């Protein structure tokens, strides 16, 4: 099973430029999470902080009992082996063929024989749909194949956590869906914890179990996908719809004068972009038939049913509407006439969407 990652009160600045502060979230073991946010909000900085390439000034990032922020170099060296990272461009060595690129971490970090290395590399190339491409150079293959090769390389040390930075960059919508499918297929096969940083709304709406969003130097929310996808927060609605109308501006957040001036323009009939209103919680993609069920998905179901009563009503409804008959049997629940699940009605006050940050410990 993948490792849980517990982030508490993480704060990162460069000199006197604060990037984000007090970020607290838990990536549940073996689940797929996504981190959204406008450009420049520090999503890549967050990924780099998780693997100790950057040092936040405050807070903790705990993986298997080790705090990545404060641990020794030796502990960090060991902890990094738990991570597989897929960078935007695959970060392949241009002069090495795919076999050698994928074999690289094994040759660097293990004492495995070439026979064993060959077995592992071919297995990972097969897992990522690259059988037969092992002798190709990165320059001879498409962007989608390069990403898959980057994923194959990220998998060779059997990571417990896989970090993915903007997997859709440079890919067409169809290839983006294929790589999304691959993430869920890999997750089903190895049960690793995933964190995907993305701007891609289709991916964000259909792939992750959990979604978070960074804005104005803070984590606006983090929780089950239904929480963000049903949120009425203006920044969330604007982001999901890709519109100019809202708090996100051209290069950063808008000041109140700009916001008011733009609002007047939109009210006077100037279009704010976007094609149609993106609403609702579409079905989540599933592993390709024939692959195992996602163990992380099962655990997520139990987890979300436990915290269901703490979610806003619209998110609760979306969770309940997404349950299959099998899910209901697994959760040991049955449906009432009005579509609620026995034993899972809200107990106590419901927090507003804005204040909910599930995963906080
Ligand atoms: N090593 C560094 N030194 C100084 N500033 C940095 C460093 N790395 C990142 N930054 C700054 O941190 C901010 C956040 O950058 P980051 O690349 O994490 O944003 P992002 O949310 O991933 O953006 P995008 O979606 O465009 O990739 C930017 O202002 C960037 O200039």
From TrEMBL:
Compositionally skewed regions (Basic and acidic residues) per UniProt: 325-339
InterPro entries recorded: AAA+_ATPase, ABC_transporter-like_ATP-bd, ABC_transporter-like_CS, P-loop_NTPase
Domain of life assignment: Bacteria
Pfam families: ABC_tran
Domain ABC transporter: 5-241
Gene3D superfamilies cross-referenced by the UniProt entry: P-loop containing nucleotide triphosphate hydrolases (3.40.50.300)
Alphabetically ordered keywords of this record: ATP-binding, Nucleotide-binding, Transport
Region (Disordered): 271-297, 320-361
A GO molecular-function annotation: ATP binding
CDD domains: ABC_Org_Solvent_Resistant
Keyword ATP-binding in record: yes
Protein's name in the database: ATP-binding cassette domain-containing protein
Taxonomic lineage of the native organism: Bacteria, Bacillati, Actinomycetota, Actinomycetes, Pseudonocardiales
